Amino acid sequence: MNLIILGAPGSGKGTSATVLREKYSLAHISTGDIFRSNIKNGTPLGLEAKSYMDKGALVPDSLTVSMVEDRLSQDDCKSGYILDGFPRTIAQAEALEEMLAKKGDKIDAVLSIIVDDEIIKDRVSSRRVCEKCGASFNVRFKPTKVEGVCDLCGGNVIQRADDNEETVAARLETYYKNTQPLIDFYDKKGLIVEGNNNVDADKCIADIESGLKTKGII
Length: 218
Ligand code: ADP
Ligand code: ZN
What we know:
Elements: E1 2-6, H1 13-24, E2 27-30, H2 31-40, H3 44-53, H4 61-72, E3 81-84, H5 90-103, E4 109-114, H6 117-124, E5 127-130, E6 136-138, E7 157-158, H7 165-179, H8 181-187, E8 192-196, H9 201-214
Parallel strand pairs: 1-3, 1-4, 2-3, 4-8
Antiparallel strand pairs: 5-6, 5-7
The structure holds adenosine-5'-diphosphate and zinc ion (ZN).
């Protein structure tokens, strides 16, 4: 099963993607995580991406699209994947269609995570992420068992540089302008499955699984 997960920054799309990757043995392709690991390792791609990410802007397609194409060609993607953070623009969605068509591959469903804006702003400042596996935690709502240590892989759990009030506002704006139109784009193709994450991840995953069952995907 090949999935895309869409949702505003702080909507919990990363958390839902992590649950789904474990449950359905999917490769988890998070473009944000790939950029952050490049920044950490000081690669040329990381250096270039950082200037955009710090402003809450999108990294240019010329960098992002080829990075995803490269990732999708790796072996672990053969048995299914979840794309988290890509596509983020109509142009990226079109580039994705083209690269999948070349391989005779396709997306089975697009998960749309719904959360109210006030809840997002409230959650983001207390969010923490694992540097190693990308799992999300929250010091107020979902703390790690041991402070600073990932429950899943033992990696370092840190606060993201762009999880501050100013950058979050810019990221939300970028999302509504560039990424929200994708919901309509995929709805017209009959691919959207909704998950409401206003309450908690369990409810959101239950919504998604029921939508995937209705479509006969699981
Ligand atoms: P969130 O969705 O919570 O903002 P991500 O980890 O998905 O977080 O992305 C963090 C940042 O990485 C984005 O604000 C953007 O600068 C960059 N980024 C991630 N994915 C893409 C993409 N597909 N296209 C362009 N920029 C991206
Ligand atoms: Zn981890």
